[in-house]
Input
Amino acid sequence: SYVLTQPPSVSVAPGETARVTCGGDNIGSKSVNWYQQKPGQAPVLVIYYDSDRPSGIPERFSGSNSGNTATLTISRVEAEDEADYYCQVWDNSRDRSVFGTGTKVTVL
Amino acid sequence: EVQLLESGGGLVQPGWSLRLSCAASGFTFSSYTMNWVRQAPGKGLEWVSTISGSGGTTYYADSVKGRFTISRDNSKNTLSLQLNSLRVEDAAVYYCAKGATGKAFDYWGQGMLVTVSS
Output
């Protein structure tokens, strides 16, 4: 089955840049979506189609995807960005959706 | 405003059944795929099932195939998930989520807790 691997945790100081990676076999050929989840809340879509932002999501959130790695970049990190982040793709070969293992972003 | 409101969760014993519902509003329900995603306590997100806008096509995770059934009633703007032969490992918060471009999930319900314990 298709596996998406994320680092368990990323720490970043306020105002700096956080990068969360999502590794998968030839993930560059797939459309990657990213979700932010804060404790006790439902996930929120922050990036779709690799790099598009839904309305209401700050421009500080951006995404890229190439080769075997997709990346969520959070620029000028703020305290409110502290959350768990998950990548997600649709595995066309098996007609199923797959979530990454999740990354906890901590703002120091 | 898009709203998704789940109902039907609760405490059941292993082997029992449960039916979850998700009432949708604020968008043309029949035009979008709908999904169920779950999250076990302290764990990550796990996709469970997807249904096409017409209801004619369904997809399931291997972990629930043959035990869970997704369905929808477009006349009532309602999504359902029938959970049969429940196992301890099915215990989780279950979210319904609206499908979007790129097979993303752009709106989520508040989640419904299912506890499976003897």
